Amino acid sequence: MIVNQKWLRKYTEIPYSTEELEDRLTHLGLEAKLLENPLDALDTLIIGEVLDVEKHPNADRLSVCKVNTGSETTGVVCGAPNVAAGQKVALALPGTVLPGGFKIKPAKIRGVESRGMICAEDELGISDDHSGIMVLDPTATIGEKLADYLNRAGASYEIDLTPNRPDCTSHIGVARDLTLLTGAPLQLPAIEIREEKASIEGQVEIDIRNSEGCPRYAARLIRDVKIGPSPRWMQEALQSVGLRSINNVVDAANFVLLETGHPLHTFDYAQIRGKKIVVRSAEDGEEVETLDGVRRELNREILLICDAERPVAIAGIMGLANSEITDSTRDILIESAYFQPATIRKGSKTLGLQTEASYRFERGADPDGVIFALNRVSQLIQDLADGKVFAGYVDAYPKPVPKPTVTVRFQKIEDLIGIPFDREWIRNLFDKLGCRILESKADYVKLISPSWRPDLEREVDYIEEVVRVYGMENVPPCSHMQVVPDAEADELHEAIEALRSRVAAFGYLEIFGNSMVSENQTRQTVKPVEPVKVRNPLNQDMAYLRTSLIPGLVATAKRNFNRSSFDLNLFEMGYVHHRFPASETGAAEELRLALLVSGKQEEDNWGYAARPNDVFVLKGIGEALAEEFYAGKLSWSPLEHAEYLHLAEIKTANQAIGTIGELHPAFLKKEWGIESPLFVMETAVLPLIENCNRRVTFKTLPVYPATERDVSIVISEEISIADVHRIIRAQGGQYLQKVRFYDLYRGKNIDKGRKSITFNLVFQAEHRTLKDEEIDERMKAIHQTLSDHLNAKLR
């Protein structure tokens, strides 16, 4: 948002210098930066007058011009199609260095000498317009420096607005904010329209079919306009904020937009069929061509302005080519409306199209400023284009926008800011803000917020206004502060953070992957799901929400491999998404934890070789986390998948919560160009922590000795270690404390298709020493059950 100092002075007295104004605006929360004028360095640019134009003898598209510089007449070869005798132009004399480093020198062009250059706006860095040379006002003085001529508009400032301040997207809004500091009155422009006897009644009908998206729509009708250039004062004003002058009608609408902050739209009335305006939602797949010449596909999220037969504008964003103002336009219909901010924002994001209008509407225009802006632009068009304004206007307002009523307590202000305030100063401040005071008591004030400030909804919003105008720098620092949180601790959040910290404590580095991925990466998941497509993606590599955390980890591993870092322990905790039509949003999300290991667990040591990372390292991490967070015992069931060499499903209490395995080398090489082994685990977070109890308890170590026994059996290759482990646990009795699998043997003296496994068992009682007979009885039960259920043979 750019504002001009000279323009601001139309609405209030400003007792600040150029630099001081920059500081005062920033003080008010309107972070301002004084803009540099690119013409200041172009001292040799002057205003010249084209005396004569002849066709170049050796080039069809060039002209030879005689130009009066004020001190002499010089010849200039020009290629612009709009150059003509009698024009006042921007002339760069030899020696001038234009933006971009191009130096003007005397030269022969196709055999004709040229001593200078007649410039277009883009060649001067004023705008990107290269349609023709820059034609100045006929009153411009020949020989005057162009910088002096153009700098009459004064200094301009770029303001970095926060989204909650739509009122300051205009010069009047910024001027109103300045009055809070200066105390000077706000002077709105007086509006005097000379209306015709003919009434607008019966000339246009307004039909609002979506009052949620468009609570208010007003229109005026003006006939017999004369399209032409705008006067110099308007061109200067628009140019001072970076806009190019187009014609008097379009410029008037743009001027009022920047003056009031209220977007307007002008239609060629002859192109409005049926003398009717219909405001409706677009149909899915409906197509229109906007003023920029682009065909756009719409959906039901987008609001349209239509006539009796067809769309003529995308509401609050851009008009369509079928109703634009042209040089032949004679009668115009002016639109001034209030659109619901969320509706315009959705439409703008869906189309990937932001305009000066959408920038303001999506932040919240002033619903009560509709008629003021409509009358203001009508007055300007009447004055600048000799338009004849029909009597009256049409104002469809089926759903009035309510203004919040707020009670502000003086004691609350002092409690939050920490210092006492003059209560009369606060009342005056609220009055200057534009509030309507309903009650004013000794300890509070009850008021209605102004329509141009949609951000003032609560008591705390007004307290922010007090400290904003008073100045944070004027609030003395507090020597002691005590913050007492009102909310109770979030146990779920604490458990999630504890899980994250525990994984990091195991030596794993956390990454933060992009949640938006390519379509191909959404298919890299063990259990296929329908992905969620982003409606307005930045590019095709970020067109979907991720369905798994694994691709992000693999991508990070590849970047590390490319930099010769192969020993990796990585993890990520984040959300994955999939389509879920039954939900309100049509999608579901799940918080997951994923780990990846590669290379070695540690660096080689002089005393021993480092052990390589493998899937069992991840399995141990999973079991440790399940035990620490009271998720119960995990079980592992084999799965088959083309992208994995080894894969298992992780279960807890018969609930599948994730997968663990080694990514297939062929898949890694084809999809990622990786030739090093990668082992990954991904699990849902909530099943791990839903029974979490973070309270630490202690108990004394047992004083009675433990007894260890081994179970060594031969079983079929098809039987899993987990099945044996479950039987030992079930038959071990109450004193069985630990079961540890520690040996696997295949080979000599073991039949083909069978394997030998060994478990170590630890028995211990808390209050007495166990007898050998008790342990023998448990061991006998274990052996018998293993034999009966698994056909196991003792070794």
Describe it for me?
This protein is of the alpha+beta class and 795 residues long. It has six domains: 62 residues, Phenylalanyl-tRNA Synthetase, Chain B, domain 1 (2-Layer Sandwich); 116 residues, OB fold (Dihydrolipoamide Acetyltransferase, E2P), CATH 2.40.50; 202 residues, Phenylalanyl-trna Synthetase, Chain B, domain 3 (Phenylalanyl-tRNA Synthetase, Chain B, domain 3, 3-Layer(bba) Sandwich), CATH 3.50.40.10; 68 residues, Phenylalanyl-tRNA Synthetase, Chain B, domain 1 (2-Layer Sandwich), CATH 3.30.56; 199 residues, BirA Bifunctional Protein, domain 2, CATH 3.30.930; 88 residues, Alpha-Beta Plaits (2-Layer Sandwich). Helices cover 26% and strands 27% of the residues. It contains 20 helices and 40 strands. It has a seven-stranded mixed β-sheet with strand order 28-31-32-36-35-34-33. Strands 3, 4, 5, 6, 9 and 10 form a six-stranded antiparallel β-sheet that branches. β34 and β35 form a beta hairpin. The longest helix is centred in the last third of the chain and has 19 residues. The termini are far apart. The relative contact order is 0.06.
